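Hi all, a correction to my earlier message: I attached the wrong file for YncI copper-binding domain-containing protein. Here's the right sequence:
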Amino acid sequence: MKTMQTFALAALFSATAIGGAEAHVTFLDKEATQESTILATLQLPHGCDGKATTEVRVKLPEGFVFAKPQPKAGWELEVVKGDYQKTYDNHGDKVKAGAVEIRWKNGNLSDDFYDTFVIQGKVSGIEAGTSLAFPVTQMCGDTVQAWDQVAKEGGDAHGMKSPAPLLKVVAGESHDHEHGDMAGMDMTGKTGMDMTGKTGMDMSGMAAAAPAGETVKAGDLEVSGGFAKAMLPGQPVGGGFFTVKNNGKTDDRLLSVTSPVAGEVQLHEMVTKDNVMRMRQLKDGITVAAGQTVKLEPGNLHLMFQKVKTPFKQGDTVPVTLTFEKAGKVDLVLQVLSAQGK
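and the right structure:
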């Protein structure tokens, strides 16, 4: 009997130790290859002393560049920009500034649940064996938990109460995939049915749409220039763009968008002020005034594809159905371009 009690206590202490180790904010994958573009996935296991998490702020270290956050349904996004300490090469362009802090705001993640927060970025100019620290501030209303403790060089992080999440840089062959720009940011619901598992599908029962890139007319509206950006493998969120011209004498409004290749498609707006880029969902739609042209483009108005089943690849096509208040439904095909397209 004593032996059984001893085993039970040992198991309890072991479980407690494991639970404590996993109670910190950490990365799902704790290693990244030099000069590679990755999806850095932060795991948030709990709230603040039982309170729901309402905001998560992540400071980005030097050497993690060209960062773009993955939007989260129900949360607002802010991207704070600043100067890098060095100059980095981005497909031939010399870049001296970019995102230095990411903020997911005005959410409501109960202490009963676990969630992840994803940032796409490139690890550049960092020696193998180096650990990059990403200080995180977790806010739960008026309660704040800072995960920002970093061990001194050669020191041991074990035993720290609030360690910052670490990403260890390792040597190896880089797989810097062609990737999209998370709806054009310079800093990325319901389950839809995908009959083939591929983008560019021809769904039986759908109204025939014009070939990718061609102009589609509906009533007084002309919709043209549709395109999307290639995405990183495993990335579930992508962006879409097009132009709408209203040739009529009355205003119209884009109410919603659907696509068989995504669980949900949202209308978003990006606004930059005082070096902070903010993104918000436009639940009331997008107005297309009489005689005016509205352009959905990177860094401004755009479509946000959520829960994409197969990441968009250059050369693919993405079918969408636009629903306007007066013009009705319009079927459009978006051509998937490279990250540098348009």
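Sorry for the mix-up. The CA atoms of residues 167 and 180 lie 23 Å apart.
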